[in-house]
Specification:
Layout lengths: L1 E3 L12 E11 L12 H18 L7 E5 L5 H4 L5 H11 L13 E4 L21 E10 L1 H18 L4 H11 L3 E8 H14 L6 H9 L5 E3 L7 E4 L2 E7 L1 H8 L8 H27 L4 E6 L2 H5 L2
Parallel strand pairs: 3-4, 9-10
Antiparallel strand pairs: 1-2, 2-5, 2-6, 3-5, 7-8, 8-9
Helix pairs in contact: 1-5
Length: 307
């Protein structure tokens, strides 16, 4: 993923570019994790290994600034509109001092914990701890032409041959106190593709096009309109979910079902309860990805069409 500066339009030639990615740590089973964040010295040592690995995939990556943090996160913490975790790294790095004598030299900038606290908004959320895949995010920045070339190489190669060096995997395992099954590098596009497959396997495939729009085109628009799924309209940076009354739900989702016996009414009530559970599930997934959700009460199709 190549990110343009938030303060400049993507079409502007002077807009800074960044490659966004992560060191992905696939953990063994239910093994414990001792540390979520590293002190600065350990974060710096791990970042040097990450920098060397990335230069083996794209030699010019060694001429770019590498910005990372000694912490690991759940995928939903990286896959959010505007890439806020990567932007936080970039903004913190903008305030890092640069040696005037080596102003043109590439830097490796690693943020670590002081008194067990990370700077800025870098603290991993305890709400998403314990997952089998943990991510150490990184940003590559520098001259736009070099960033573009490196980004193209990484986008086309990491998913197939992006395994981390053995020394990097062992260093991450020792530093964080966890058991690593596999360690590899991903761009955020690669990560999104992996999440799309996982959501498909988890029965959330219909939601992905809307979520993908929120991630890759936050100013875009997308509908989820595929019965029996909830009706959702993503627009202007928020997901508006139709909250149908029981009668409106019946008319939209079960128009063929009569409601003239206790048995039929019980069956429809169970289906409606399942629908409400699906609403809560989808709302929770969108919320985990920091997509704002608004429930809109709908008593009929006319209101739903104006969602």
């Amino acid at each position: 993923m190549i990110m343009t500066s938030a303060s400049s339009p993507a079409s502007a030639p002077s807009a800074p570019l960044h490659v966004l990615g992560a060191l992905a740590l696939e953990l063994k089973g239910d093994a414990a994790v001792d540390r979520n964040a590293l002190p600065l010295q350990d974060a710096g040592a791990l970042s040097e290994k990450i920098a060397r690995d990335l230069a083996t995939f794209a030699a010019e990556a060694g001429g770019l600034d590498l910005i990372t943090v000694g912490a690991h996160y759940d995928p939903v913490e990286l896959l959010r509109p505007g890439w806020p975790l990567h932007r936080e790294l970039d903004q913190l790095a903008a305030n890092a001092p640069r040696d005037r004598a080596a102003a043109s030299a590439a830097r490796v900038i690693a943020f670590g914990a002081h008194d067990e606290r990370l700077p800025g908004a870098l603290a991993p959320s305890p709400d998403f701890a314990g997952g089998p895949l943990r991510l150490v995010p990184f940003v590559l920045s520098g001259e736009a032409e070099v960033v573009a070339r490196v980004g193209e190489i990484l986008e086309s190669s990491l998913l197939e041959r992006g395994m981390a060096g053995a020394g990097t995997a062992l260093a991450a395992q020792a530093a964080f106190g966890l058991q690593v099954e596999h360690a590899r590098y991903l761009t955020v596009h690669d990560l999104a593709a992996m999440m799309a497959m996982q959501y498909e396997h988890a029965g959330l495939g219909p939601l992905w096009p809307l979520l993908e729009t929120a991630l890759l085109q936050p100013d875009g628009e997308e509908w989820l309109d595929a019965r029996p799924e909830p009706l959702i309209h993503y627009s202007e940076g928020e997901a508006r979910i139709a909250l149908f009354s029981p009668a409106a739900w019946h008319a939209r989702y079960a128009p063929e079902a009569p409601c003239n016996t206790d048995e039929c009414r019980d069956k429809l009530n169970r289906r409606y309860q399942h629908f409400e559970a699906r609403l809560r599930q989808i709302s929770a997934v969108l919320g985990a990805h920091a997509v704002p959700v608004t429930f809109v009460h709908c008593d009929g199709e006319s209101e739903a069409n104006q969602l």
